Amino acid sequence: MNDKMKLVIYGGVTAAVFVVSALVPLLFRGGEVKARGAGLSPGARAEIFDAYWNGGGEDCRVSLIDDPDGSALELCSARMNQISLLCLADKSSGQVKSEGSEYILVGRGGDEIRLCRMWMELQSDWRTWLDVCFDMDNGDVYYFYLSAECVSNPYKYYELIPDGMDAGSIAEHIAQQRGYELTHLNWEGDSNASATAIYTSNGSAVCMSISCSCYKTALIDVKICCV
């Protein structure tokens, strides 16, 4: 996919409005690829991720990177900081309860990419779990999972989640916000049902699995993944 795609969830310290169009698109470009796999198209890189994440067969080679280079670590930390600041409803007062990361080299055929997976648990007015997997070399996000439960002061967050927020609306907004054609949407129409969306742009295709469960002042659970 050639265009930049940015995940942005706008939030404030004590009150925020989660706008569906701000949730998507998920995949975003972090810069030029200057390291491993520089000749691969974005679509080819996403296919390698899919082979790793969803079990792409015997031709998928996976190994941990024990000692990533400093520039890659800096990019990964900056990307995760950006995402977490934009995704956490009460980010200014939260306490990090746990966090972790792993760095993975994935090969398929003669091609290789490097992936970073980072996760964190935050406790404040909301108990939040954030888990992201992205390309170490350009910042492309291939997997995003946010689960947050309001445990105190729910009156502050009544406007946090808009009405009608579901997997189908997220799929539609991905197309609207970035000018992609939504060529196929497999979704039952239920507010808590997951969706599979296929998009085309400039002759290339991207498939996303999307799930969303949200309840006002109570719960946010969103997962978007390249498949």
Describe the secondary-structure layout:
Blueprint: H1 20-23, H2 42-53, E1 60-64, H3 70-87, E2 95-108, E3 111-123, E4 126-135, E5 141-150, H4 167-178, E6 181-187, E7 195-201, E8 204-215, E9 219-226
Antiparallel strand pairs: 1-2, 2-3, 3-4, 4-5, 5-9, 6-7, 7-8, 8-9
Please characterize this protein's 3D structure:
This protein is α+β, with helices and mostly antiparallel strands and 227 residues long. It has helices spanning 20-23, 42-53, 70-87, 167-178; strands at residues 60-64, 95-108, 111-123, 126-135, 141-150, 181-187, 195-201, 204-215, 219-226. The chain has a nine-stranded antiparallel beta sheet with strand order 1-2-3-4-5-9-8-7-6. A hairpin with a 2-residue loop joins strand 3 and strand 4 (126-135). The longest helix has 18 residues, at 70-87. Residues 1-33 have low confidence and may be disordered.
- For the largest sheet, list the strands in their spatial order: 1-2-3-4-5-9-8-7-6
Proportion of strand residues: 35-45%
String of helices and strands = HHEHEEEEHEEEE
Shape: globular
Total number of helices: 4
* Estimated structural class: alpha+beta
Uncertain runs: 1-33
Amino- and carboxy-terminal Cα gap? 14 Å
Rg over alpha carbons: 17 Å
Main pleated-sheet profile: 9 strands, antiparallel
Would you count the extended β strands for me?
Answer: 9
| Helix coverage percent | 10-25%
Mean pLDDT: 75
Question: What attributes characterize this protein structure?
Answer:
227 residues; alpha+beta; 9-stranded antiparallel β-sheet; 4 helices; 38% strand; globular; disordered N terminus
